[in-house]
Amino acid sequence: MAAQIAQFDWHDTPLGALPHWQAPLRTAVDMMLLSPFPSAVVWGAEMTVVHNDPYLALIEGDGHGLGQAFDTLWATAWENIGPWVFEAFNGGANFVENQPVRLVRKRIGGQACFVFSYTPLRDEDHEVAGFMHTVIDTSAGVDAHDKWREQALAFERQIERVLADRDQIWQLSRDAMIVVTRDLLLQAVNPTWQRVLGWTEDEVRGTAILELVHPADRAEVEVAVMEFVHHRGLEQLETRLRHKDGHYRTLRWTATFDGTLLTAVGRDVSQDQDDALRQLDNLVRASQRLDAVSHVAGGMAHELNNLLSGISGSLELMQRRMEQGRLEQIDRYVSMANDSVSKAMSLTHHLLAFSRHQPLSPKPLDINRELNAMEPLLRQVLGAEMRVNWELDVLPWTVCLDVAQLENALLNLLANAREACLGRGLVTLRTINTRVQAPSSDKRGVAPGDYVALYVCDDGHGMPEIDLARAFEPFFTTKPMGHGAGLGLAMVYGFVGQSGGHVWLESEPDQGMKVCMLFPRCLEHIPQPPQQPVPSVLRANGQRVLLVDDEENLRLVMKEYLQERGFDVCDADDARSALERFRHHGPFDLVITDIGLPGGFSGRQVARAMRMARPEQKILLITGFNDQPLEPQLANAPGTALLLKPFALSSLMNQALLMLGE
């Protein structure tokens, strides 16, 4: 019958497929099959029957009763046994010996007198889900009856003891329980293990426990296990284990060793160890204080960008006149002016990053791979006497970031670390998958979800609490006059926030600094890097360009430069004029338009209107203040590019040639 139960198609019965049966049901069936007398497990509200071989002699017909309803099998005797069945479902065990039931044994002939036993069975929630039906043949007399009765009662006690031990200790425990061999191979895990870490027992049985331990904790775990084996173990051990989804959970373990196997009980303490949640209050206060500053910084950067772009373009043209010999002895002043403009351009980029309005070009990426690619540049910033410790997650989740801005943020952080360590110290770069489960009490706090954490730690002089509260403010610096503008951390704050993440600082005087950044997990696939075509010519050949910008000085400078480089340029100062020239003076090989245009009609709308009339139109968008990201249908469309102000006029020309060469 055990073989028939395994082969029987349970899918269409109320019990469902055999692999999905609850553990208490499986245990009861195993015990029932060992019984020497007729027994059946009756489970669920539909009273589905699973029986052993001796039980077949009681069933009418030539088949078996697997999967049938108990009340159907015993319909002829239901009037006598029905009340005892309902009592069993109410939790009452009973041995009905004063009301024997007489049945005709068709399989073996003749009549027999039977006594029924009903033992309640409980599910994983410790609720009565069925009963064990035990049938005793009392026809042999009182002596035989007493013998079978004693065996039945002993069998009932055995079932109750097994079920209680398994349900209350192993299955119903709120702590993860594991059994590990001397070789650190997992032999058994309880259901709580799966709830905490996602791995089923079949998936991890025979697996080395160290494969699931965080790389930074493996040495500590190995030492702890050796001490447990020699009965010198610590009372508790905290370690991080990898969840099936890829993040890590922190468990606090206690263990015993019986000479062969190590049994450990672990409590999930991830909630207490979640760095992001512990910093929530500071994060909320910092966000509230910085919102107003962010708005002012964004407005300043927007106004300055157009002015600086015009100045930069004018200086480039002056330098070109000098190279042509039309002006004399002004090269020194032009060089100084260009140097000042370069610094001003860097300043505005930092302001825009802090204000979270800097146009980004995010893409799915492997943060470990990007950090490894940046390593030579990062080491150059740190200098020869600074040491770097890399603690990168084994399989980090994908994140969606602007690589250039990530690099810029790290350069700023490492420059700060070098100065804090006076040029000689240790910097640690750490990545780790993190899952935040508890909801935040504030909408600007850390929302529940999956994140990739990037930590930059140094062992420098640290920072007092009063300075930590202002560290992200633009122009705030603890450096001496002339040694920093105070925009590095402000830029990092803006970049992380604009990327959908969170950033905070942890530091104490003489205890070093820890910069904590959380970036949301991205579920997109990492694309293959495209091969950028290189323009084969440095001049245009009369290609027609429509140039749209409301800043007159900048527009005239760009127009003159493009014309000198061989373009045929038609310009406009607002959206309406641009669309008119597009309709009546086209077609144009390329449209260059600022995103921020006056009159309530933006460069985005201009681009969409032009694409409706001419879907293949190539469009180069320029901007210095992008408060809204480009729509995917526009940004991802072929023949579209974005150039950030302020830019060198040569960059504008190269981008135009690149697009026209596609």
UniProtKB/TrEMBL annotation:
- Enzyme class (EC, first level): transferase
Q: Taking every annotated instance into account, which residue ranges of this chain make up the domain Histidine kinase?
A: 299-523
One matching Pfam family is PAS_3
Residues recorded with modification 4-aspartylphosphate: 594
Q: Where is the Response regulatory domain?
A: 544-660
Q: PROSITE patterns of this UniProt entry?
A: HIS_KIN (PS50109), PAS (PS50112), RESPONSE_REGULATORY (PS50110)
What UniProt keywords apply to this chain's record, in alphabetical order? Phosphoprotein
Superkingdom to which the source organism belongs: Bacteria
Q: Which residues form the PAS domain?
A: 175-232
- Please indicate if the UniProt record lists Phosphoprotein as a keyword: yes
Instruction: Kindly indicate whether the keyword Nucleotide-binding belongs to this entry.
Output: no
Q: What is its EC number?
A: 2.7.13.3
Q: Which reaction does it catalyse?
A: ATP + protein L-histidine = ADP + protein N-phospho-L-histidine
* UniProt-listed PANTHER family: SENSOR HISTIDINE KINASE, TWO-COMPONENT SENSOR PPRA
Q: What is the recorded name of this protein?
A: histidine kinase
Instruction: Give the organism, scientific name.
Output: Pseudomonas promysalinigenes
List the top taxonomic levels of the source: Bacteria, Pseudomonadati, Pseudomonadota, Gammaproteobacteria, Pseudomonadales
